[in-house]
């Protein structure tokens, strides 16, 4: 029989709601798993043991008193350290922010709590969430449970590792340039980057670039758990001008639903093989799959970089990076500054105007193939330290083009594992029309059903 920490979020909620197990038993099982696994991977930075057990006891009392169970009743979740959790520091991985305790939950964290979820730990990220490997001076490095010599991804690397190793069935992170999907690929879990406007930002003020390009979303071991969490983190919150109360499910599309499979990106052969494997699973399930290339992909990546460069960094508001970040982050940014600048390409007269033109071209391209099956990154998980090498990191912006185009256009995307190669997990993403997360999740569930389950795993 499976241990409680091995079970998916939906099954845990069912068991607690039916009073077959107590919420305290579920939380305690995960606390024990954290004590066992986390010393090997450093994914969870702060264990919220007392608060989690108090919340579990309160949930159990409410059920005994006849209260209806919430849809996430008793489900432990981790929360990235750049998302507010009441009474816990929102550090952004910065030493100077170690005591920046949030007075209240971020809106989506509060909504998940209201549905019954229980924060059990805070999770690691790179400084400012601005590196694709998880390490910082405050908390140290997070290790990939598949291979300590390879990156766990970033910036939501702590949540991906925590979920992959069974320390929680659900992690809450964010994605401004693949920061949910890339760690999911590296660690063999699933992730959902919602549409722009789906999940209210609220809480902290953030630069325009992050308001436009970054979104909050869940990480889980099962696609069904992504849907469960997503359904309960999309409520309205004041202060977010981008929020859009769109229906969670749209009209049924005409069958067969078209899928554009992107295989011509000069990707690593293992990555291309993962896309073709997923394409076959979708075709076998009745989707109409055709290989294709997106329009203006290079220009989309350039416009993304221009917007994030001009409106995503607060140069005048913060001290020099070398005075507040780790030596590793400074080395990374020194190596990446030239490729990042070069990735911006020709300066646009108006980046938002070009963004609109690219969006129209994308809509035309997907008129008959609403879903896009693509690599998350054209490379598998890289060796630790590779992103400090100026020669290696020069190719990184091009490797992430299919992820940042979804951020630029505000489109939903689901990352889903496809198996493993050379001892490392592989995965793909399904990108869909704006506010059609349901279609992305449906297709990802088909891929998941045809793929051997990879997690939870013991750190190796």
Automatic annotation (TrEMBL):
Classification via PANTHER family? GLUTAMYL-TRNA(GLN) AMIDOTRANSFERASE SUBUNIT A, MITOCHONDRIAL, TRANSAMIDASE
InterPro entries per record: Amidase, Amidase_CS, Amidase_dom
Q: Where is the Amidase domain?
A: 25-441
What is this protein identified as? Answer: Amidase
Cited Pfam families: Amidase (PF01425)
UniProt similarity note: Belongs to the amidase family.
């Amino acid at each position: 029989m499976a241990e409680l920490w091995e079970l998916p979020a939906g099954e845990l909620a069912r068991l607690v709601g039916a009073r077959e197990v107590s919420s305290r038993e579920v939380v305690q099982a995960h606390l024990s798993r954290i004590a066992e696994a986390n010393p090997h991977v450093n994914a969870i930075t702060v264990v919220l043991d007392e608060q989690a057990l108090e919340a579990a006891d309160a949930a159990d009392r409410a059920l005994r008193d006849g209260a209806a169970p919430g849809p996430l009743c008793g489900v432990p979740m981790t929360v990235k350290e750049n998302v507010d959790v009441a009474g816990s520091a929102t550090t952004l991985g910065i030493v100077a922010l170690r005591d920046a305790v949030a007075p209240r939950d971020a809106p989506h964290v509060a909504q998940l709590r209201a549905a019954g979820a229980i924060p059990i730990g805070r999770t690691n990220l790179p400084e400012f969430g601005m590196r694709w490997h998880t390490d910082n001076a405050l908390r140290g490095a997070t290790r990939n449970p598949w291979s300590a010599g390879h990156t766990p991804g970033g910036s939501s690397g702590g949540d991906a590792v925590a979920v992959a190793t069974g320390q929680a069935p659900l992690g809450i992170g964010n994605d401004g340039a693949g920061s949910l999907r890339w760690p999911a690929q590296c660690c063999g879990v699933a992730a959902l980057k919602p549409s722009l406007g789906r999940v209210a930002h609220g809480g902290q003020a953030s630069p325009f670039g992050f308001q436009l390009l970054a979104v909050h979303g869940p990480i889980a071991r099962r696609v069904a758990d992504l849907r469960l969490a997503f359904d309960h983190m999309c409520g309205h919150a004041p202060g977010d001008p981008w929020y859009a109360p769109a229906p969670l499910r749209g009209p049924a599309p005409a069958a067969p639903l078209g899928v554009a499979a992107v295989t011509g990106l000069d990707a690593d052969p293992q990555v291309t093989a993962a896309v073709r494997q997923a394409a076959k699973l979708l075709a076998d399930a009745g989707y109409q799959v055709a290989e294709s290339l997106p329009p203006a992909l290079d220009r989309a990546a350039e416009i993304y970089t221009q917007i994030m460069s001009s409106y995503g960094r607060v140069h005048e508001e913060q001290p020099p990076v070398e005075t507040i970040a780790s030596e590793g982050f400074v080395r990374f940014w020194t190596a990446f500054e030239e490729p990042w600048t070069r990735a911006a390409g020709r300066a646009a007269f108006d980046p938002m105007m070009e963004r609109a033109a690219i969006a129209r071209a994308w809509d035309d391209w997907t008129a008959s193939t609403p879903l896009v099956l693509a690599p998350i990154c054209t490379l598998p998980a890289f060796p630790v330290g590779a992103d400090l090498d100026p020669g290696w990191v020069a190719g990184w912006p091009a490797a992430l083009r299919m992820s940042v185009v979804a951020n630029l256009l505000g489109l939903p995307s689901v990352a889903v594992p496809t198996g493993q190669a050379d001892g490392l997990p592989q995965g793909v993403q399904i990108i869909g029309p704006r506010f059609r997360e349901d279609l992305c999740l449906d297709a990802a569930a088909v891929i998941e059903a045809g793929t051997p389950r990879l997690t939870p795993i013991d750190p190796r």
